[in-house]
Amino acid sequence: MSESTGATAPKPSSSVKLVLLGEAAVGKKCSLPTRTIKFEIWDTAGQERFASLAPMYYRNAQSALVVYDLTKPTSLTKAKHWVAELQRQASPGIVIALVGNKLDLASDFNSSSEGGLGGGSESDGDGLNTEDEENSGDARKVSTAEARSYAEEEGLLFFETSAKTGTNVCEVFTAIANAIPESTLKGTRGPGGAGQSGLGGRGDDTSRVSLTGPRRDAGAKEGCAC
Amino acid sequence: MESLSETTWDVLISGTGLQQSLLALALSRSGKKVLHVDKNGFYGGPDAAFSLQEAEDWVKTVENDTLTSSLFCNVSITSTPQPDQATRSSDSARLAVSRAYCLSLSPQLLYSRSALLPILVSSKVFRQLEFQAVGSWWIYNPLKAVPADASSPIEHSNSSSERTEEAEEHRRREERPPKDRRGELRKVPNGREDIFKDSTIDLKSKRSLMKFLRFVADYESQPDVWESQASSSFSEFLASRFNLPLPLQTPLLALTMTPDTPVETTTGFALPRIARHLRSIGALGPGFGAIIPKWGGGAEISQVACRAGAVGGGVYMLGNNVEAVNLKTENETHTSKRDGGESCEGLAEVQLQNGDKIKTKWIVGSDYDLPALKATSGFGKEISSTRSISVVSSPLPSLFPTITEGAPLAAGAIVVFPPGSLSTETKDVPGEMPPVYLVAHPSNTGECPDGQCVLYASVSAESSRGHTLLDQAIENLLESVDDESTPKVLYQIRYTQTSASSSSDKVQEPEAPPPASSALENVLLFPPPSLDLVFDDSILERVRTFWRMIVGEGGDEGDEGEFMVFEDREGLGVDLSDDE
Questions:
Q1: Is the pLDDT reported for residue A12 higher than 90?
Q2: Is A14:A70 a contact under the CB 8 Å cutoff?
């Protein structure tokens, strides 16, 4: 992900930890708009299979992507479980985005994607489609309305995406980036902004020791790390 | 997804303590099928870190678990009644929410020359860890014993910029009506320059100290000086060889972090440790030589290592106990003749608590993570340490002065109470008393909220006497710091931890290969975690040995690659399209 921002992209000034939960087959590599935010994406590495996620996973995550498969209602139930888990375990100010994936399998996909489905908010009328989904080749089992109303209740960002076609994937990240309060964004390197514990404490560089060399080299050497 | 029983596992690792987790990391690129379970619902086993709620659960678990209770006993939690809102006390005087704490069973410090650090780097997991510097070593000095020195306290700073600050602080202290202090803290000189500046040491003693420091910097090449006294008292060695009187021995003994009495602390134990301390200073930055992982020490490393195991395809299950192990199962003749010449012919059958019955070639665990397997692991004689973890109502800023210019903020301090400084009973002979160690972690370790501090206390003494000493040490420390009012202990976990004496109390001998009794040749057992307050590098030798046994000797270095040397993973789990 960080690679794809390309060599010409400006150096990120802030780093945001984003945790990824839910259905595994989610998205594609996407070229982030070259905002000056670098997403440090942590997937669950399968540790969620037996509810064995380590606390370090949630720690200081400023954002989370909870993904369900809109062709599988059970996956939304699971997603709700992860949202609850995030609310319990993660930093209080975490920005959570609920994402319904596999939009390409929904009958309303073509029309909506051509229309440039931005912000995930244009496919409101889907509730209507659920009745005749089989006939129309629509595999959608979770209506946009249902998922959105849940997202609104819990104060989550909401999107429907297609990892296959890339539809809306970048929009998700942009929306997350915009939703993270400026105050919790801290420089990826260098001093400053330290002392305050709480959200985004990873920026607390004044006490950080680099293992890869004397302190003055730290920035240069770690800069290329993903 | 395949069920656990349908898979033929190469390795079942039981327990997510530091040792097992590092093995999981070592195996993470081996292509072996690894099932990693822990009977606890949390990572880290005996090296875990807890929120207050988790600590409470842990205490209950230990009380009911016969295996774990062989490692931990006399476990209890006390927490002082919380001041009610009406008293208008500050936030630091109150316990915060449970999750604001991360109290570690493994707060060991790592010297910058520890063999673990290059491994964390070469295995690439260091990127998920954050390390912080351990600042000062302090010695508690009872004032009754040396009233003459009271006129020149603490001020042995090694940074001029900070010197004025400290002097200022000192002056303020003088202006206040004298508190009835029982003692004060003195900073252990951080190298030769500090010793020169130290006004409390006379010239003759300075010369003796310098002579010793020059010797220890290169002690390996001068066996004639010390080898004959390797297994006798270090204190005696310092007195006879270097003419160092007891008061000057104290800081040197403090640097060894010896759990033992001065009489029992041998020259062969002490020299390498002092050398390690001195040689580590500056290696990772100016003015410090030891570091700790943020967010709970060893617990954090174990989580990161397990995550690497999971990224490599290992399957992780918490809260799943190994209930029974049946080593005599059918011979899998088809699979036994693979290249790599695996020594195991058969598969063990393991009954897990969740009902799964799995087959595996290797079983790795420890006496406290596996049901009794008839043969005991037989690691050295039993030793134990009385310990407490305290949350105190002050950040104790005076313990964490600026290390030196350009150094990171200190995130740890060691306070040593030398034998005799806490003597409560007249019959106590200082030379026969164990030292007490308090390791202070401020809030920037992520272990407690701002305004508070965590004290990890330990002493090599039986429980009741041990806690008397620890409580007194904590009380004296809190009284000696220059706060407006004496800070309070808000919360405390007490326990006794048992281990086996390791190789580290002998002269640096290479670790013997692990005991692999013939009946249990596919079962690899780790010893209990070391009680050392410094990370025990010998762990790594055993991890390496087990790793090599599991990946197969093979004769050539080709297949298994180099131990813990991995390439960066493409995108580090970032490729979202990866369907697992």
A1: no
A2: no
